[in-house]
Amino acid sequence: MSAVGTQPFDQTYSLGYQVNHEDWSPFPRVNHLRQKFLDRPYDVDVERLRLVTEAYQNNEDKPRKLQCAYAFENILLNTQLYIYDEDLILGEIAAPAKASPIYPEFSVKWIIDEILHSPFEERSNDQFYIRNDSDREEIVALCRYWEGKTVDDAVTARLEESQTVGSQVGDKVFQTNVYQYAGIGHLAADYDVLMKEGYNGLINKATAARKKLSKKDPEYADKRDFYDAMIIMLEAAKKYIARYAKLAEESAIAEKDEGRKRELEAMAANCYAIAGEAPKTFWQAVQLFNFATTLIQIESNGHSISYGRMDQWLHPIYEQDMRSGNLTKEFALEILEVQFVKMNNPTKLKDKGTVLVRNGRGFGGESLTIGGIDKNGNDVTNDLTMLILEGSAHTRMMNPWVCVRMHENTPYELKVKAVECIRAGYGHPKLFNDAPTIKAMMRKGMTLEEAREYVVVGCVEPSLPGQEFGWHDAAYVNTAKMMEMVINGGKCLDGGVFNKQIGPNTGTLETYETFEQVLESVEKQFDYWCDQMCSSLNIIDEAHRVCKPTPYISAFFSNCIETGKDLSEGGAKYNGTGPQASGIATCADSLATIKQLVFDEKKYTGAELLQAVKDNWEGHEKLYAIVNGSKVHHYGNDDEYADELFKFMFETYCNNINGRKNPRGGNYSPGVYSVNANVGMGMFTNASLDGRFKGEAISDNMGPVHTDGGSHDICGPTAIANSVAKVDHSLATNGTLLNLRFPQEAVAGTEGRDNLVSFIDEYLSRHPMHVQFNIMNAQTMRAAQKNPEKYKDMLVRVAGYSAYFVELGKPLQKDLIQRTELHF
To answer: Catalytic: which of 47, 337, 420, 461?
Structure first.
């Protein structure tokens, strides 16, 4: 293999997190920038809110697409610009580093309510700080203008009671608040086209398409507005970059330090060069990437704006720069590491309900994909693949979420380098299996060549850059709550928020005479609740089309320019909607309890099991111990009895989602992962027959159950791998996720490293889609709970993302600690 970084492929970085560690990066600049980021507070910034409101007030008579364009332009031409000491890359999200802007286009009720009654700074986790009372008052006053005008308002006006009773405002069988209260995101732009054509190339394409419009087209006016809005926004992007060029130029004139003066002059020259044209150097390419990406975030606060196959789209200009002698590997790595630190600056204010379900103050989901195969099936590992992993190990920050694609011909050197990063214990990278993922992409209608170019967006969602608008992460589905309806006749065990029948009465544990009747009830409840959820999502989808089109990001999707349709109108080539299921193992183990104890062994009646969970196991201690013990079949132990029930639950969910149509002319795409929503969902879920108490986390992602009564997987990592691989992961076209945790000592030394490499090889050979690791023992996490000041930058792999452990809520910390520690 010719691809090499600046360090040996088997360079050991560390074994797990180290208290009082030395700086990891070889570049002092990067270490300084990293520390400055950690020291900054999380603020709320009012400027974007002020500028976007001003633009809408001045253009109330304009079509909505043009209102969006003028608002974007007003922000870019007037927002304050920032250049930070030692930084080499310019561009923020219309707010200072680490400060969150406000996006009133989507929702304001919760902002007003929380400022007045539940201040952001008083949250138990994910606190944000408003600088002064004047800002606080201005935010409320500006948000008042938006009341009745937001996406949330449009959605709420159309939802029926049957849809809301099971949603986030009711009994939380499913939660659609992510896209009801905020932007969509979850996409990857076509960075390859941007690097080849620059903004001028995109403007020329849009202008040419605009000229071809015919007034015989019944959609002429809509398409005209779309092209006009796109051109306004792309021209504004050029002016914005030129503003930064001028600021860097002025800063250079005032700078006394000669070294920094030269850097600022170079940064100014870079910005002037890429304000319209394609980049000519590696530094310019990374700078253009940062501008393009942060502008997507300025337009809409949709999270998971992912970076595509960076080692592929950035490689041609890297190679050209290296051949010309203008670039060294060391400087390329330093540029990457500066960019990696900067990727953490954007933050996103979320409502308290969302924060309860999933912790994190970043935009979330900024996945960067490397490795894998090309459209012809050949391995694509190159220098940048290795440099990106080095940069990740040297910076050890939340972002980017590095994803390594693997296949049967992945070079050994890349496997080892990825495992050395994993062993360092900061949660990156996550690993994706090309074969089942490509199969999943083809299930969505893509050609083999297209499918081979997949990237990861968000936590684990496979997508096609510049071609697919997948609405990934569209909703969180609490399958354990659906199971509650199965055993209790469509009612919550405790009566629920509305204290009434909320689902169909398909029987109860007191009435089922056969286990087949239980399974039939599962099918009926899942069908009913998927109807409620998907119909709600369709209303949200239509509200985004009407209220908040996104012409800027649509410019990075070629089909949008060709058809004259915004992404929100179905302009992408592939249009999906991807809700994901949580708690599948909770359901499987609950079914195993029912099947074994009631119908096979007849040791308990259905009525007795139902009463036990109604009583939250109080007075049923013996049964509780049995359900959490090894005498009952549990998923995750290579046990056909339980694994077949997991397979049944997995397929029941996927089959109830696959094939449904969305308003953009695409199809629904099921995912089986929860991120960390299993913790928040568990808080609103009554006791369950897998041995959970009321309020405990439900099972996470594709993982086995772990309760206060103990972990249900007791046979080691190979058994888990065998259980997970018994389902066809390609059915979950929106992705699957598996968390595994090894203590540091389990992977220590060359033997431990090689054991982990071998385990990954064996696991992926069985065709699951994904796996990621925490290399950390419970003792380290408990120590961080006791002395958080010593562990401020300790990252843990939560789900599809890594986060600073001490910033997580206590329930999520508990869930991480309780995950099974595995040993080879």
So the answer is: 461
Burial letters 438-470, b for 16+ CB under 10 A, else e: bbbbbbbebeeebbbbbbbbbbbbbbbbbbbbb
Which residues is 706 bridged to in the sheet? 711
* Cα 207 from chain centroid (whole Å): 34
276/18 Cα distance (integer angstroms): 45
pLDDT at 43: 97
Q: Which residue from 319, 651, 299, 614 is spatially nearest to 487, judged by alpha carbons?
A: 614
Name the residue among 713, 508, 714, 496 with its Cα closest to residue 594.
508
Locate 268 and state its tokens: 């100014």
Secondary structure of 268-292 in HEC code, one letter for each residue: HHHHHHHCCCCCCCHHHHHHHHHHH
Report the alpha-carbon distance of residue 40 to residue 99 in Å, rounded.
9
How far is residue 519 CA from its own chain's centroid? 32
Tokens (6 digits) for 292: 């393009």
Helical H segments across 182-281, by residue range: 191-211, 220-254, 258-274
Query: For this structure, is 461 an active site residue?
Result: yes
pLDDT of residue 359: 67
- Candidates 68, 459, 534, 560; catalytic one: 459
| Residue whose C-alpha is closest to residue 93's, from 197, 238, 240, 229 | 240
Of 31, 39, 33, the closest CA to residue 88 belongs to: 33
Residue 624 CA to residue 634 CA, distance in Å, equals 14
Nearest 5°: the CA angle 644, 647, 652 is 130
Kindly give the parts of the chain with pLDDT less than 70.
1, 357-359
Distance in angstroms (rounded) separating the CA atoms of residues 104 and 145: 9
Looking at residue 93, what is its pLDDT? 97
d(CA 498, CA 207): 54
Q: Is 459 a catalytic residue?
A: yes
